Amino acid sequence: MTTLIDPETVHHNDDIAAAQPQIALFLDFDGTLVEIAPSPEDVRLDRRVAPALEALRTGLGGALALVSGRPIAFLDEMLTPHSFDIAGLHGAQIRVDGEIRSQSDAPENMREALRDLVRFANSHVGIIVEDKRISAALHWRLAPELKDEALDLMRQAAAKLGPGVRLQEGKSVAELVPASASKGSAIAWLMATPTYAGRRPVFIGDDITDEDGFEAVNAMGGLSIRIGEDRESHALHRLASPTALRHILLEAAEGGSLTASSFTRD
């Protein structure tokens, strides 16, 4: 059956789309593009997502980046054969157009702190240490009863490492990261580059680690979106789950258009 569409309606919808400023899309990874897994190496990315992101990046003139606590090398492996702009390790690494443009040095004494974390993990079932070279994370998702003890250890480690390091807490994880690195500063850095400048930033994340990114995007007049449960956040909008986000991204990639309203319509 053929459906006739009023040409005036088509033109009106085109005008609405054209009136929206072009966006720059920033995406967290864990808990956003993928579901949170029991351990860091267990995450699985829907095979449709990377090709969809590639199509969306083309449609956005290149203004799409991952902003994650994961190292760039890990994200490249998950998204292969596609390669994207990435702010990894909470902004301690930034790659644009295939080139590392900014990277923090590993804090002094990080190896010593890492040895303390490994000793703790070896003595407690369910504790996982993630060595990211520039940063180090301690996970207790598989041993929630050890949260307080794990946090105390991480706070002591951060105090020993001094002002060059800050403690970044997240969902069942705490991480020692360079003090100068944050997702908010990484997004601001990217927004100052030619590909992203002049666009409306949209940042989507799920965790405490994303809050400074939400604040930065809000200050730029952008759109901040938190995935998941209804808890206090600087994000101005919510999506129910990574599944809900994937549906939006896949639909937009197929339709060839992604705007801020793609994320906020009912």
Automatic annotation (TrEMBL):
Annotated GO biological process: trehalose biosynthetic process
Annotated keywords: Hydrolase, Magnesium, Metal-binding
Cofactors named for this entry: Mg(2+)
Claim: Translocase is one of the keywords in the record: no
EC number: 3.1.3.12
Catalytic activity: alpha,alpha-trehalose 6-phosphate + H2O = alpha,alpha-trehalose + phosphate
UniProt pathway annotation: Glycan biosynthesis; trehalose biosynthesis
Pfam families listed in its UniProt record: Trehalose_PPase
GO molecular function annotations of the record: metal ion binding; trehalose-phosphatase activity
First-level EC class: hydrolase
Similarity-based family: Belongs to the trehalose phosphatase family.
PANTHER family for this protein: TREHALOSE 6-PHOSPHATE PHOSPHATASE
Role this protein plays: Removes the phosphate from trehalose 6-phosphate to produce free trehalose.
Stated name of the protein: Trehalose 6-phosphate phosphatase
Organism encoding this protein: Bosea thiooxidans
